[in-house]
Predict the 3D structure of the following.
Amino acid sequence: MKDSSSSPKDFGAWFTDARLGLFIHWGIYSLLGRGEQVLFREHLIPSEYCKLADEFTAPAFDAHEWARMAADAGVRYMVLTTKHHDGYCLFDNPDSDYTSTNRAAGRDFIAEYTEACRAAGLRVGLYYSLNDFTWPVMFDGEKRDPAEFERLIHYTHSSIETLCSNYGQIDILWFDGMWPITAEEWRSDEIDAMIRRLQPNVMINDRLHDTPAKNPDSPFNDGRPGYFDTSERRVVGSPIGRAWEGCDVMQHRWWGYINHEPHCKSPAELIFLLGDLAGRGGNFMPNVGPTADGRFPDDVKHQLEALGRFTRKNGEALYGTQGATGLFECSTVGPLTRRGSTLYVWVQWWQGDTLHLCGLANEVLSARVLGEDFDVQVERRGEHIYLGGLPTNPPDPICSVIALELDGEPRAYSWCEQKLWGSDPTVYADWARS
Ligand code: JFZ
């Protein structure tokens, strides 16, 4: 896939165009079925926990099957854990023997994963946790043992250099686990410079560097392209023009495999999250916690199949669009995305044979329901637009998208340009007197 970041203005354009990724948390913790943080939260004995590496053989792991299911779901990039907080490496790390190549599995899972992503036309993302529970000095702090602390920092730099050198083009580096060490102690700016030397076009998330408040001068915070914000399990949008991504679990709480998960997100919840994020100009990256033997749980397969049905029918309203929900917040039917003079209305709450919109100042030249072939009548009465000729019941049980071809870029009436319940209540006074 040609990299579109040939010039600074295009840097990372593929990322915001992609809109849908897939996060995968997989490791020896999957054997226990109690999530990815079980070692730390259940205070297991690390020297005992590490022996799981001699049971983790993943006989059913097939990276091409993972990539196929993701691509069929309409996913454009994947991010797989290369090492989580527990320190187990899913790649051939010459600085550690606690790896999938040196222990029972005897395989370089990251090599297989990156090759399968590219074969499926997916962008390659790698998650790396800076902190590592196999290094007690992480908790002691530098003062207790400066030499050991420096060895941890060197190990971290060297491991990231291995990932950036030995696995071809990497499109996303998703860092995590800065706590309890600071970006200055990790020497994050040196890590950044090394990454940019080896992978100049990679997108780096917001957990390698300090926040703008802590360090306004860091590469991440000076507005240069190649970075994105991560909003986790809550939708906190970033300023227009800043790449950002909301990630969330497809099950209920944990990112790693759970033996008995009574509440997996429904297809509707996932599609509503996708629309909410896309409508705000963000990406959505739902997460899978595969079983220890390497399979996606059946619930996840059903969720991915539902995402695939939706993206095949409505991809035009998702990929390469900009958020438009904030354009005029009086839409009661669902989020909005836009591309040029086309406005996409993601109708989550169907209104019947006529749909009413208010606040859009454009002339609507035509309207169509994506994936359907019936005609939609358009009528304007003052500030109100009525789309008629629709079926009484929604064409899609979860979300039906209506594309409005406009006389130009979508624009709102002045009274609804501000945020709803906005700063100037007088804009509503004439309406209240009508
Ligand atoms: C971290 C990990 O601890 C977790 O296991 C998982 O890998 C997740 C993707 O990342 O958890 C976080 C990190 C940051 C926030 C919340 C959970 N945060 O900033 O709100």
User: Anything to note?
Assistant: Residues 25, 36-37, 176, 232, 255 surround JFZ (CB under 6 Å).
